[in-house]
Amino acid sequence: MKNGYILFLKASVLLIGVAIFCLSVFWLPGLAELSAEQYPEFAYLKGIVLAGIYLTVLPFAVALQHAVHLLSLIEKRKAFSEAALTDLRRIKGCACMIAFIYAGGILLFMIIGILHPSLALMGGTIFLASLSIGFFADVLNAQLVHALHCKYENEMTV
Asked: Cβ–Cβ contacts within 10 Å for residue 71, how many?
């Protein structure tokens, strides 16, 4: 793979991280305030929803950091290594953590009876996207384990 592609992917991952950070710091509190003004019956949820979203920013940042590290391993031609397995496991863990936080929030709001449709739509979308990323990372991890096993067997026979 050419280094230009990897540089593009690293820049994309970093741009996504910066965009999410800026949106969560600058745009999200204003949106929460606007939503609280438009829907005063749900205004008390503003802090809880913001806390839940901010709780998922940390695992998202960790997953992005591991994605950049994985791209660096690919760039150094060390994609078939234990470090790549560790990165994939941590990406999967972060994605599952995000998915479970959103699922728990949606379930809690549903049980209490205060689940607003926009929260359900946004939370459900993030839940499914995170779960999909977690499953994809798990599939890649399993394939990488198999490839490493074949690589070690090949080295032992030679």
From this structure: 21
Band of pLDDT at residue 44, cut at 50, 70 and 90: confident
Q: What is the dihedral of CA 62, 88, 124, 49, to 10 degrees?
A: -20
Q: Is the pLDDT of residue 42 over 90?
A: no
List, for residues 62-94, the tens digit of each pLDDT value. Answer: 999 999 999 999 999 888 889 999 999 999 999
Supply the pTM of this predicted model: 0.86
Task: Tell me how crowded residue 109 is: count the other CB atoms within 10 A of its CB.
Answer: 19
Let me know: does 39 contact 70? Beta carbons within 8 Å: no
User: Cβ distance 58 to 21 under 8 Å?
Assistant: no
- Pairwise CA distance, residues 96 & 141, whole Å: 14
Q: What CA–CA distance (Å, rounded) separates 62 from 112?
A: 32
> Tokens 């999410």 — which residue?
20
Please answer whether residues 134 and 95 qualify as being in contact, where contact means their C-beta atoms are separated by less than 8 angstroms: yes
Return the domain boundaries, the chain: 3-157
Q: How far is it, in rounded angstroms, from Cα 21 to Cα 36?
A: 22
